Amino acid sequence: MNSTAVFELFGVSYSYQNRVLALQDVDLTIRAGETLVILGPNGSGKSTLLKILDGLYRPTRGRILAFGHDITAAADDPELGYWLHQRVGLVFQEPDVQLFSPTVFEDVAFGPLQLGWPSERVRQAVATTLDELSIAHLADRAPFELSGGEKKRVALATVLVMDPEVILLDEPTANLDPRSRAQLLEILAALHRRGRTLIIATHELDLAAALASRIVVFGEREHRPIAEGPPHHILSDQQLLIAANLVHEHLHWHGSLAHSHLHWHDAEHQHEHG
Ligand SMILES: Nc1ncnc2c1ncn2[C@@H]1O[C@H](COP(=O)(O)OP(=O)(O)OP(=O)(O)O)[C@@H](O)[C@H]1O
Ligand SMILES: [Mg+2]
Hints:
Order of helices and strands: EEEHEEHEHHHEHEHEEHHEEE
Shape: globular
Number of helices: 9
Bound molecules: adenosine-5'-triphosphate, magnesium ion
Radius of gyration: 19 Å
Number of strands: 13
Distance between the termini: 51 Å
Largest sheet: 6 strands, mixed
Strand content: 25-35%
CATH class: Alpha Beta
CATH topology: Rossmann fold
CATH architecture: 3-Layer(aba) Sandwich
């Protein structure tokens, strides 16, 4: 075991109801301080992987270590789950799963109170986090009545408020408008600079380009990593991205700071917009 490994997965598989295959024989090591982006198309198993890392599902097969401790059974062992959640936080893909209190303030205060923080520390941490995510004006609103992007930011706040050592983020920029998205990228980059370990599931290549220190690509049918490496290596491999259903061979963006346009090409047509 390497002491800098945050997670080590050995042959991890998961099937829903022993019927629907979601992960197959995954071997993966995630190191302290890295920003690992898990890229994969719909259904390749990204969300399932994050839930397993958060100790919510027990692998059907295989073994997982977190910080060198076996957490394979965390889903069935509340004490182990509590230990894990002191250090690891998950922002779900669907914010509704995460929001259940009468007000936004109470939802964001919930985790810190569970951890036993004194009330003044909780109040301050909640205020700072709401401010950072530009949602202070939502503090007294009911989470269920918020817009999709507002909910997403509240869900992010419920985890970021605890400043966990390891943050699992499932499609963190989905539903965010450009300003909220830029703010979030800035927050995540700052967490990375402060040494936090970030594990981000997405199928957005520009998010990976902006934040990743390493990328792992999950295959649509394989349900396990089919490629991994530094962002410049993975993101310049057009063949891989097309094969992995991360760009479409006929319709995709050609982007750079100077120039970007939507590009549609096939045998008979060459159209460009923008
Ligand atoms: N609760 C569930 N019950 C049954 N099957 C499920 C459930 N959740 C996910 N699956 C199946 O497991 C597989 C992996 O799903 P998962 O949600 O992990 O994919 P994903 O990579 O996160 O996809 P997306 O990009 O759409 O979020 C899919 O085939 C999916 O249909
Ligand atoms: Mg998902």
